[in-house]
Amino acid sequence: MGHHHVTFEDLPQGGEKFEPAKGGKLIGAFGALGALGLAGSAYFFLFTKDNVFGSFAYSWLFAVFFAFTIICGGCFWIMLHNASNSGWGVAIRRLWEQLANMILPLAILSIPLLIPAVQKPLYEWMNHHREAHHHAVEAGTSVYEALHHMAESNPHLHVLTAKYGYLNIYEGFSWYSRFAFYFFVLWFIASKLRSRSVKQDVDGDIKHTIKARQFSCTWLLFFALTVTFAAVDWVQTLDYAWFSTMWGVYIFAGCAWSSMAVTILLVTWLKSLGYLKQVVTEEHFHLMGKLLFAFTVFWAYIAFSQYFLIWYANITEETRFYLTRNTEGWRYVSIFIVVGHFVGPFLALLSQARKKKPFVMVGVCLWILFMHVVDLYWLVIPERGPSLSVGVTVAGAWIGDVVAFIGVVGTVGFLFLRSLANYSLYPCRDPRLLESANVIN
Amino acid sequence: MSAEAATHSHDHAPAYSGAPRILDREPLVLNNRSYSWITNRICGIVENKQPLLWWILFVPSVLLTGLMAFCFIYLISTGVGVWGQKQPVAWAWDITNFVFWIGIGHAGTLISAILFLTRQKWRTSVNRAAEAMTIFAVMCAGLFPAFHVGRVWMVWFLAPIPNANAIWQNFKSPLLWDVFAVSTYFSVSAVFWFLGLVPDLATLRDRCKPGLRKTMYGIFSLGWRGANRHWSHYETAYMLLAALSTPLVLSVHSVVSFDFATSIVPGWHTTIFPPYFVAGAIFGGFAMVLTLMIPVSKIYGLSDLITPKHIDNMAKIILLTGTIVGYAYSMEFFVAYYSANPFELQTFMLRGLYGPSTWAYYFMFGFNVFAPQLFWYRPFRHNLWVVMLVCMCVNAGMWFERYVIIATTLERHLIPGSWRTYEATWVDKYTFLGTFGFFMMLFLLFLRFLPVIAIGEVKGVLPQSNAHNHDHGKEGVQEEDLMAYPDRHVPREAAAV
């Protein structure tokens, strides 16, 4: 390959600093949309009632969960890169580190989900638990006993008594404590890995690389469990009767896929502003494109397996998930996901030449992000109409969806792009930086 | 880089000079071995007399193969009833053994295809043997369902061939997909293996004295002369086959998992089965690769090619996949509880707490999830006895996993009237033992007649094959030296031979 062999002498000492003013347009756009969205969301949360408020709770969950998956994906890519002792991605690892650290702002944006009024339209099971709690206080029994008592007149609730050890809000490692725990684990991983990486920028000690690898290996398991159970707690329990052992893997596949698309978009944007010129080459685009392709297929494999096994066995308590998403208009969304989430990106990403063209990849990645939005919308929103007892869909609710989405994504995006200015755009004294800059695959 | 450094260094000369700034990759071939040393050492295994140990292993393997043949003949002449299956345990050791061997057959193509696509250069020292192992394992696997059909001479009915009885396969059945998946996997893996062998067969041909051997190597090396055109075609074909086999690595065991998961049997029907089976197969496959390659490396003096780094990498893969399998076991248990489905929960309680075969569950969990956790500790990954011990645990554990899923689930059906604890007969046991003999016999013959390491590919990962070689090792440091690991093994200044 013709390009110049990069050495440390070619690179500015201390790395490249991002100047937000250079990317002002995009950052400004994210900021403006975020502000607009947050203002709109404040209106929905504070001044609406009943079904409008209830339907907005779903919008908010959808928006927060979307941002959550992308941030988790960023976290995953750092950990995978470290744990596998890889070299190619060192030049872009800092971007993942910054992305993963957006978990803290997201934790603040997710606070509304802790408010009972917001939970009421979302998590039917919590309402039963709250009612049981009310009875328990009156009768002086435990919540579990009260729930059991309620189940005698409403047989649907037997399921809730059977799940009480996990699905509860009052005792043990409850939904609330797990909520805090997930954010804590992700924040801990993201901040530890970034601080080590940034320290290396200063002292150049190679041992940071090895320690970061050990840390990533150790915490991968906790990361996997966090993503799995966060996905169970926040989205699977929208329908408390439904379950799937594949659920965590399905959500994880979307995390890795969408955040790689974000990475490619980000690198292209930074390069267009004149950054990363020396350290990121078309080889990196090819590599990132291949990983994007791999996860396109992985997602399809997981999605197909889950659907197929539930369809084939045809057991009532499992099929309800797909039946809801196969009703009226949702049917077309389901089919669209098959084509748009898998077939389209699969064909687009097959060619090596296309993967090396940032221009083409921008289009593909924007499409992929759009499909990830559709996928998460399709996971969360179909529960809304039936839960609010207004039919399959809620008329006009899309306005709330858009408001919440731009509120969360605009705010997180704005903070993320601003945060790029805090440190060098790449780990400037990583002992594998040159390996990455000169990578040929 | 030194010439450039001199001209560039004025305004931003490194303030942090002196300390190493580059973490070097570990060498994949130790002691600076030359091209000719590699050729001589690997071809020597085929050309020289086999060591006594080879015969000590080969003779019992042939005898065990005979035992296997006897068991199958006994089964054909008597009936499938000689196996221990009775209602409700209609699948037992046979399908357990089938899934066990198929699982082992996953590492080869994973190493040759997926690690090739992900540019894991360390694969070159182990891919050939792993691919051979894959093919032999799939052969062992195929025997069990073939004989389970009862009248093995009618086994061609599995293929959708028009026949006089107008019997047509049930295309809705995962069992039929399994026939397609396994046979496709076998054929593609065999072609892939053979393709990789062609340049090395030509090397052997060129070194032979005229005679039968030379003729045979000549025929199978397809006129290979090592021309640029040959290599160019070879590499294109290799890449395409790697890309084609990658989905096969995932699909075969996914389809095997469908055999169970499409049913409504509690303990079998669960959505995580496909990726869980694939991870388990890779897990078991790598354990078998290490089980075979560590002794091979010691017996034939290949430890400069199969280095502690290779063993370390494979141990890490075993740790990773073992933990994934542990995740799947735990998710199954969690969802058995969380689903609030009493039958599902009961199945898992019977497996793990109070069923007749809980011992199998404990073996499964202990061997597959706990034993590999030893690999967190670097000295254990570098102690061949520990590595062999863990691999033996995994080999056994993965058999128990399939036994737990298949037999212990069926032992307790929904109606207590159809409960029966499964007991294997002597035919079950000796047939399974016999397949080990068959597997070992084939593997030993492979060692005897074919190059156990891909000569051409290993040469490609030597430092002298890399045009940028002169850049390395100047200001870099090896992780082992930096961290001062007590079991450092790379003699950095070793003399070239």
TrEMBL record, chain A:
Full protein name: Quinol:cytochrome C oxidoreductase
Bilayer-crossing regions: 26-46, 58-79, 99-118, 173-190, 217-235, 247-270, 291-312, 332-350, 359-380, 392-417
Keywords in alphabetical order: Membrane, Transmembrane, Transmembrane helix
Top-level taxonomic group: Bacteria
UniProtKB/TrEMBL annotation, chain B:
Protein family: Belongs to the NrfD family.
Statement: the UniProt record of this protein carries the keyword rRNA-binding: no
Organism in which the protein naturally occurs: Brevifollis gellanilyticus
Pfam families noted in UniProt: NrfD
Membrane topology recorded in Swiss-Prot or TrEMBL: Multi-pass membrane protein
Subcellular location: Cell membrane
GO cellular component: plasma membrane
Alphabetized UniProt keyword annotations: Cell membrane, Membrane, Transmembrane, Transmembrane helix
Protein's name in the database: Polysulfide reductase chain C
TM spans (from-to): 52-75, 95-117, 129-159, 179-204, 237-256, 276-296, 317-339, 359-377, 384-410, 430-450
